[in-house]
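DM from R.C. (forwarded with permission)

"hey, sorry to bug you on a friday — could you get me a structure for this? deadline for the figure draft is monday and I only need the backbone to look sensible"
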Amino acid sequence: MTEGQLRSKRDEFWDTAPAFEGRKEIWDALRAAASAFESSDHLLAQAILDGASITLPHGALAECYDELGNRYQLPVYCLSPPVNMIEERSDELDGSDLDSGAADPSAGGGGLGGDAGSGGERQLRLRLSTGRDLRLAVRSTDTVGVMKRRLHSQEGVAAATQRWFFSGRPLTDRLRLDQLNISRDYVVQVILSQPPPSEPPPPTTGHTAEASGPAAEEGAAKISQEPPPVEN
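My reply, with the result:
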């Protein structure tokens, strides 16, 4: 199996699996988590799973469940490439690479990027890893980096802590919206990095204050001046 055949087989699975069982947003999250896991970014994969409330009873993505109890099974070829991969010799461009070029404008205006020349303002649906859904005013000529800064201005979320995903693919900052061909009914997932935990304040040691000053000295003097008891 070549790398192109593996990629086509994976795309076929991810595109058809939501039509048979489970929820599409969970499949998208699993696709993003599998991609992060294959890239050895385990922290990002765990953040995606936590944001989508996905549990792994056996500690592997091969079998997992969502918060409603739906079961999701992933084939092995979606989690890691085969060891006997055949090297490709074709020089053709891979059309599945989002960075390779813009979407075909003749494909129709159903997506957010369908009217690339107008640059009109649209509403993009976002789903944060905190579970919140919102809409962001964007233009078809905006890059992902520009949209991150716009989300920062709207919600106060730092752009450096945002990671955007669509259909399981990470979106780089230099991609333009008209290259993604996102339909109006689809959701872009935004994974927010967790801030480092703040260090707890040092424990305070309790000391019992000892009496001092003239009052203490006067009390000591009274005790020392008391006469001893007289024996009969």
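R.C.: lifesaver. The radius of gyration is 31 Å.
me: no worries. The helical segments are 3-16, 24-38, 42-51, 144-155, 177-180, 214-225.
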